[in-house]
Automatic annotation (TrEMBL):
PANTHER family: ORNITHINE CARBAMOYLTRANSFERASE, MITOCHONDRIAL, ORNITHINE TRANSCARBAMYLASE, MITOCHONDRIAL. N(2)-succinyl-L-ornithine binds at E142, H176, K236, R276. NCBIfam families: PRK04523.1. Catalyzes the transfer of the carbamoyl group from carbamoyl phosphate to the delta-amino group of N(2)-succinyl-L-ornithine to produce N(2)-succinyl-L-citrulline. Is essential for arginine biosynthesis. GO terms for molecular function: amino acid binding; ornithine carbamoyltransferase activity. The lineage of its organism: Bacteria, Pseudomonadati, Bacteroidota, Flavobacteriia, Flavobacteriales. Residues 184-308 form the Aspartate/ornithine carbamoyltransferase Asp/Orn-binding domain. It comes from Pustulibacterium marinum. The keyword Amino-acid biosynthesis applies. It catalyses: N(2)-succinyl-L-ornithine + carbamoyl phosphate = N(2)-succinyl-L-citrulline + phosphate + H(+). This is N-succinylornithine carbamoyltransferase.
Length: 316
């Protein structure tokens, strides 16, 4: 693996998942692979799981890890070419990415969308500028349109816990007070399209994700109908894609309660976290045996570790 910007960078998913599960059983099996190698984790947005699990993954491979919060610690970065930098930006991405590449063998970046400028977000201007101007591999720790480390952790979790050869997996929209990105839903959808699962998306009318992502995945507007006999219920809010970044609906009838879960096949509840209780999901579901969100978050370490391992092996 030369980079991990999107789930499309995965060449052999079953092999990668098997490798991640083996690393989970023996996390220090490759503890010298990253010796004398450094990863830089660059955050333009907040994080709990991504920051700590990626650090832990790097440490378990013997890497050094440097973390920088770009919103409060670094110089403000200019991403446009040819700009007269007489405003709020102090350093151009050309220099910043080139300099960080001298300190780090791998650079990981988190940069959320603006949710106001669709064209800019869809172009992945932060991630792609790092890719363009860095001379080392780049890992996406959640960008404007993708969260591939989360999607790989989700795939590992489903493979570990599935009870049937081809489980039914439902991605459901749920209400949220703020405008949220599409990245988690996009990457989960792309990942499920690569897996041997019966995959359905359900959301209120008008909340269609990018059709270039959903492709031929069945979409249902009746949540309860979609949940029937499901083995895994993956819940996430996303803001409107067509009326870009708008919150047009906070319909609490889409909040996941025991009533929705009752029509599933004793389905497992999944969410990438952080989650707003009694908005996205009722306490009764999140605190139940059906919730696997903590196991899912644990797998973030092994999704990051397997990606780092594969990139380190290419560096050698
Ligand atoms: N799921 C996830 O990416 O969590 P953080 O935002 O806390 O990193």
């Amino acid at each position: 693996m030369k980079q991990y910007l999107d789930v499309t960078d995965i060449e052999n998913l079953p092999k990668l998942i098997d490798e991640a599960i083996a690393l989970k059983k023996n996390p220090f099996a490759f503890e010298t692979l990253g010796k004398h190698k450094t990863i830089g984790l660059l955050f333009f947005n907040s994080s709990l799981r991504t920051r700590l699990s990626t650090q832990k993954a790097a440490m378990q491979l013997g890497m050094h890890c440097m973390v920088m919060n770009f919103t409060s610690e670094a110089w403000t970065i200019e991403f446009e070419d040819g700009t007269v930098m007489d405003g709020g930006t102090s350093e151009h991405i050309k220099e910043a990415a080139a300099v960080v590449s001298q300190y780090c063998d791998i650079i990981a970046v988190r940069a959320f969308p603006t949710l106001t400028d669709k064209e800019k977000d869809q172009s992945e201007f932060v991630l792609n500028n790092f890719k363009k101007y860095a001379s080392v591999p780049i890992i996406n720790m959640e960008s404007a349109t993708a969260h591939p480390l989360q999607a790989l952790a989700d795939a590992i979790t489903i493979m570990e816990l599935k009870q049937t050869q081809k489980p039914k997996v439902v991605l459901s929209w749920a209400p949220h007070p703020k405008a949220l990105p599409h990245a988690v839903a996009n990457s989960f959808t792309k990942m499920m399209q690569k897996m041997d699962v019966d995959f359905v998306i359900t959301h209120p009318e008008g909340y269609e994700l990018d059709p270039e992502v959903t492709k031929k995945t069945p979409i249902m507007h009746n949540q309860k109908e979609a949940f029937k006999d499901a083995d895994f219920i993956y819940v996430k809010n996303w803001s409107n894609f067509k009326d870009y970044g708008k919150v047009l609906n906070q319909d609490k009838s889409w909040t996941i309660t025991n009533e929705q879960m009752s029509v599933t096949n004793n389905g497992k509840f999944m969410h990438c976290l952080p989650v707003r209780r009694n908005m996205i999901v009722a306490d009764e579901v999140l605190d139940s045996e059906q919730s696997i969100v903590i196991q899912q978050a644990n797998n973030r370490t092994f999704s990051a570790q397997v990606v780092l391992k594969n990139i380190l092996e290419e560096l050698e």
